[in-house]
From TrEMBL:
Keywords: FAD, Flavoprotein, Iron, Metal-binding, Oxidoreductase
Record flagged with keyword Iron: yes
Record PROSITE patterns: 2FE2S_FER_1, 2FE2S_FER_2, FAD_PCMH
EC number: 1.17.1.5
Cited SUPFAM superfamilies: 2Fe-2S ferredoxin-like, CO dehydrogenase flavoprotein C-terminal domain-like, CO dehydrogenase ISP C-domain like, FAD-binding/transporter-associated domain-like
Organism of origin: Calidithermus roseus
Molecular function in Gene Ontology: 2 iron, 2 sulfur cluster binding; FAD binding; iron ion binding; nicotinate dehydrogenase activity
Residue stretches making up the 2Fe-2S ferredoxin-type domain: 1-83
Protein name: Nicotinate dehydrogenase FAD-subunit
Span of domain FAD-binding PCMH-type: 177-350
Presence of the UniProt keyword Oxidoreductase in the record: yes
Length: 464
């Protein structure tokens, strides 16, 4: 297996397929990338990939701790060691030195790589977007000088890195990697993938790696056969139709955010609250739905939009409403050898829609409770259509059908809100864990609906 590392082609053999890019880099002497969490929360391991983006070739920051090494086959990677040229620091490195942006230094290389990706972003505006750094944590809390360094950066200089962006990015194709510890296969088409899965239904599917690699890193899960989905073009579609939007299950959330220009409010609110830019550059909707985590952030949002999933297997395709997709804790309607091809979002989008997330940190954190709400009002301020969806309150993401039915046709009023809140207490039975008690989760579920009511009632001029 080969890939380009800091401008030089390297070959990998004999290593376990579940070796991470981070472990490989450090074993190769490139120790600027650090392991702080092994689950993509701290950003100390940040590197950049050369990828094709909506505005052309770009440097895309990712967590190297969340990439199995064979996923890099045919790709191009840069680490902090590759930025300085002819003994001269890159502008982002020099800015960190000038503004005192490094204290203990552990997080510094990760920040530098995120700074680098943002400075060279092809569609960047005149000012540095500080949100590009939201996936990097400084345990010394030395954020002010890092911010100063970021804001001091002008446009990307005319150097070899800028010149690289004028050339095409590597095109991912089929790949196979084998060692004594296991096998990695990357099909190049949906048909090829389904044929392979029909023969090997036990294979572990990997899209962005932001869930599977965490399992490998922290729970020491091992699979004899990994199937990478990142080179299948049928999973990368983004197509607007008159009656729906189709989103490829393998499209990264970062790409989706930049393509979906007319996204409804619920989606615009959801994007920045889903992990961090580094995670969104790898994570996919298909992966987030397929893992069926009860605290995943995308299910409540998509349930509120009445989304469905297109599923393919060797026997053909079928469409399953998302409300029928989750069958139990970490269980879905996917059969053996099936994959999620795309997510279908019907049009028109609802007039009012909101996404709320309760977590210990505002950004880059796991939900305690997440909620997606959608509302259409008819004549006399009565509810024509409402969708109430939650994560973190049951073994699966849920839609509260009984509460929706009770609200439909009723005035959108405080009295209706109170009745709905009472029904929520009967409809959900959350559990207590280290993120929040059952009582807290229930109160948050009720209060988030209350927040949605007051915001929409104010917008519609509803009284009482």
């Amino acid at each position: 297996m080969e890939f380009v590392l800091n401008g030089r082609r390297v070959q990998v053999e004999k290593l376990a397929p579940q070796t991470t890019l981070l472990d490989y880099l450090r074993a190769s002497g490139l120790t600027g990338s650090k392991e702080g969490c092994a689950e993509g929360e701290c950003g100390a391991c940040t590197v950049v990939l050369v990828r094709e983006g909506p505005a052309g070739t770009e440097y895309r920051g990712v967590n190297s701790c969340l990439l199995f090494l064979p996923m890099l086959a045919g790709q191009e990677v840069y680490t902090v060691e590759g930025l300085a040229q002819d003994g001269k620091l890159a502008e982002v490195q020099a800015a960190m030195v000038q503004h005192g942006g490094s204290q203990c230094g552990y997080c510094t290389p990760g920040f530098v790589m995120s700074l680098f990706a943002e400075q060279y972003r092809p569609d960047r505006g005149p000012e540095f977007d500080l949100h590009a750094l939201s996936g990097n944590l400084c345990r010394c809390t030395g954020y002010r000088p890092i911010k100063d360094a970021a804001l001091s950066l002008g446009p990307a200089p005319e150097d070899s890195f800028k010149a690289r962006l004028r050339e095409p990015a590597p095109v991912l194709g089929p790949a196979v990697y084998e060692s004594e510890q296991g096998r990695f296969v990357r099909p190049g088409s949906l048909e090829e993938c389904l044929t392979f899965l029909a023969l090997h239904p036990e294979a572990k599917l990997v899209a962005g790696g932001t869930d599977a690699v965490v399992e490998s890193n922290l729970q020491y899960r091992r699979w004899e056969l990994l199937v990478g989905l990142e080179a299948i073009p049928e999973l990368k579609v983004f197509e607007e139709h008159e009656d729906m939007l189709e989103i490829g299950a393998g499209l990264s959330l970062g790409e989706l955010e930049r393509r979906w220009k007319g996204a409804p409010q619920i989606v615009r609110e959801w994007f920045p609250l889903f992990a961090s830019p580094l995670i969104r550059n790898s994570a996919t909707l298909g992966g987030n739905l397929g893992t069926a985590s009860p605290i995943g952030d995308s299910p409540p949002m998509l349930l509120a939009l009445d989304a469905a999933v297109r599923i393919a297997g060797k026997e053909g395709e079928r469409v399953v409403p998302l409300a029928e997709f989750f069958k139990g804790y970490r269980q879905t309607a996917l059969g053996k050898g099936e994959v999620i091809v795309s997510v279908l979002v019907p049009k028109p989008f609802p007039a009012h829609s909101r996404f709320f997330k309760v977590a210990k940190r505002r950004l880059d954190d796991i939900s305690t409770v997440a909620a997606g709400f959608a509302l259409e009002l008819g004549g006399a301020g009565r509810v024509a259509r409402v969708r109430l969806a939650y994560g973190g309150v049951a073994a699966t993401p849920v839609r509260l059908f009984a509460v929706e039915e009770a609200l439909t046709g009723q005035p959108w009023s405080e009295a209706s809100l109170r009745r709905a809140q009472g029904m929520i207490a009967e409809a959900i039975k959350p559990i207590s864990d280290h993120r929040g008690s059952a009582e807290y989760r229930l109160r948050m579920a009720q209060k988030l609906l209350e927040k949605f009511y007051y915001e929409t009632a104010s917008a519609e001029g509803v009284k009482g």
